[in-house]
């Protein structure tokens, strides 16, 4: 683990990614405490204020402090995206490992179906699922998890296929272990590392997808300070006060950049070829 | 590339569309609240509801409904919109045409910019140009479409006032005005594509430049340009075809957001409107057509790849 960390830190993008993601996690944990104002307190006299010493990032159409809203919203945006990715990864990992373990015709059938599901763009699939479940943060989370499942199943399968050929799996089969034991105890633990890399990169995508769903009015609902929702609300006032829309947009991009960098750094660290 | 391989790929496209149609139908038709209640409202009489159900075929079993719908789709009949009462198919196909135009411009812009960027980065690996391309592409892949759209509108439409922020003018009506309306959406969509593809071109080209045959060509004394363009680039570009095809999926997702933001009446916007008004036949048609577009794009990419790369023998 320490060795891995050292190797991540050796590449510039890994080091930068680690710093950015560390910062993001700090904001997620501490955000509500370091926020200077209540994110939902209205101040009719302080509306549309540009950035100033009093309000570092300015105020919105209700006079709410944008910095405080961003700090509070980090949880709504980042934590949800991480959960969605983790859930989708878990589901995909189970399907992919089972498919690789079964092999033959079952594997072929499962993978062709996974490919077919992947023909539906993730955003569209998420939109359809949220539409079915009703618009809310939790349903958006579930939708993103489902939309990620086929892709993760595909990645896991290719890794698991390599593991499947290892001697210890054959040994377990020879011992007469149950299929469930072999998948859970022998194969899954060994496909974890490459999957974590893929997952880190997907967190970036999940943040973008989650914010996009909220932006389209299908994720977090007002008065939540989810960043995509903040952008959507600020659109009407874009001409009046551009910073209202600028800050949450940049926040989404910042988080996505952080996780993309960290994911690439991890991949390089785990891949001896590069 | 044998005819058997092509046939197999066509069968796969068919299977893909069958699975997609099942999923789309299941998500939209089976699970949500009664469509008849949705159309007539909560206070409708039982008689009116059952009459409408019979008319819409909702009293049949789910499989019968699916079969009926699928048979219609295969004939090109996607049903009638619950919102407008118009047949859904022609509206969606027309909207798809506008979206494809948007996608086509985006792909062209992407190729024009991403290839040179990727080549420069690979050739000048580890130098300033490489770092710059890498930074740009990291930022590019990390910007969701709605953020990019916001930024380009703020700068190009709001601040500099060069281009209109929203709206659509058919190219056939007024080519110049139509193009002006397309610039911002195309720009928005291509950012992610350019970032992604330039990175792929760079990493493929870096790999190819380290192969023995490139070294051999260099040692033979061929000029650098010849080695780069005639030997290395050709092989580096092959995987890019697959990447571009895979990106069509992103592209279609992006089209939904971009058309909504720029009020461009393509298939993405039709879908959003259909979802907001819970217009089931339109949602089903839109989703199916989008998935079909993607399936066909990746089919064509596979065929092109197999034709261009003689090393690959498909059976």
From TrEMBL, chain B:
Keywords: Cell membrane, Membrane, Transmembrane, Transmembrane helix, Transport. Gene3D superfamilies: MetI-like. The chain crosses the membrane at residues 12-31, 100-123, 135-157, 177-195, 236-263, 283-305. It is found in: Cell membrane. Residues 96-301 form the ABC transmembrane type-1 domain. GO terms for biological process: transmembrane transport. GO terms for cellular component: plasma membrane. InterPro entries: BPD_transp_1_N, MetI-like, MetI-like_sf. Its main location: membrane. It holds the Pfam family BPD_transp_1_N. It is a multi-pass membrane protein. PROSITE patterns: ABC_TM1. Belongs to the binding-protein-dependent transport system permease family. This is ABC transporter. It comes from Bosea vaviloviae.
């Amino acid at each position: 683990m320490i060795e891995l960390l050292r190797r991540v830190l050796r590449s510039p993008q890994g080091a930068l990614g680690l710093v950015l993601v560390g910062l993001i996690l700090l904001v997620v944990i501490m955000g509500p405490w370091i926020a200077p104002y209540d994110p939902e307190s209205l101040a009719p006299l302080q509306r549309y204020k540009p950035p100033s010493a009093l309000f570092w990032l300015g105020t919105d159409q209700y006079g709410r402090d944008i910095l405080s809203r961003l700090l509070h919203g980090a949880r709504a945006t980042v934590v949800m995206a991480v959960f969605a990715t983790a859930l989708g990864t878990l589901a995909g990992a189970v399907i992919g490992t089972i498919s690789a373990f079964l092999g033959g015709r079952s594997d072929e059938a499962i993978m062709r179906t996974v490919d077919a599901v992947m023909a539906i763009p993730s955003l569209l699939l998420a939109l359809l699922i949220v539409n079915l479940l009703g618009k809310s943060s939790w349903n958006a989370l579930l939708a993103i998890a489902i939309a990620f499942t086929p892709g993760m199943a595909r990645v896991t399968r290719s890794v698991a296929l390599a593991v499947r050929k290892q001697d210890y799996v054959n040994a377990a089969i020879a011992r007469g272990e149950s299929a469930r034991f072999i998948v859970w105890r022998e194969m899954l633990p060994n496909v974890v590392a490459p999957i974590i890399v893929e997952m880190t990169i997907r967190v970036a995508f999940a943040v973008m997808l989650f914010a996009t769903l909220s932006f389209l009015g299908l994720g977090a609902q007002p008065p939540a300070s989810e960043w995509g929702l903040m952008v959507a609300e600020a659109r009407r006032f874009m001409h009046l006060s551009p910073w209202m829309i600028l800050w949450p947009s940049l926040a989404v991009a910042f988080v996505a950049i952080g996780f993309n960098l960290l994911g690439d750094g991890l991949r390089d660290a785990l891949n001896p070829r590069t | 590339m044998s005819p058997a391989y092509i046939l197999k790929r066509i069968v796969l496209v068919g299977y893909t569309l069958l699975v997609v149609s099942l999923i789309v139908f299941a998500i939209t038709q089976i699970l949500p609240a009664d469509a008849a209640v949705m159309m007539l409202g909560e206070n409708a009489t039982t008689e009116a509801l059952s009459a409408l159900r019979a008319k819409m075929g909702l009293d049949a079993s789910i499989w019968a409904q699916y079969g009926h719908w699928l048979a219609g789709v295969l004939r090109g009949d996607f049903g009638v919109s619950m919102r407008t009462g118009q047949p859904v198919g022609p509206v969606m196909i027309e909207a798809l045409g506008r979206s494809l135009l948007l996608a086509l411009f985006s792909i062209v812009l992407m190729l024009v910019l991403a290839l040179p960027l990727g080549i420069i980065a690979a050739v000048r690996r580890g130098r300033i140009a490489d770092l710059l391309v890498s930074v740009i592409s990291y930022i590019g892949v990390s910007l969701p479409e709605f953020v990019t759209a916001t930024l380009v509108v703020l700068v190009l439409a709001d601040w500099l006032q060069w281009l209109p922020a929203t709206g659509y003018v058919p190219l056939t009506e007024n080519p110049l005005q139509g193009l002006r309306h397309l610039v911002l959406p195309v720009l928005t969509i291509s950012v992610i594509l350019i970032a992604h593809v330039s990175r792929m071109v760079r990493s493929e080209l870096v790999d190819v430049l380290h192969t023995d045959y490139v070294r051999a060509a260099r040692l033979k004394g061929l000029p650098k340009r010849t080695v780069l363009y005639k030997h290395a680039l050709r092989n580096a570009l092959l995987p890019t075809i697959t990447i571009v095809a895979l990106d069509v999926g992103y592209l279609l997702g992006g089209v939904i957001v971009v058309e909504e933001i720029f009020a461009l009446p393509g298939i993405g916007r039709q879908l959003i409107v259909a979802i907001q008004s819970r217009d089931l036949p339109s949602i089903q048609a839109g989703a199916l057509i989008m998935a079909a577009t993607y399936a066909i794009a990746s089919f064509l990419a596979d065929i092109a790849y197999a034709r261009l790369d003689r090393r690959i023998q498909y059976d």
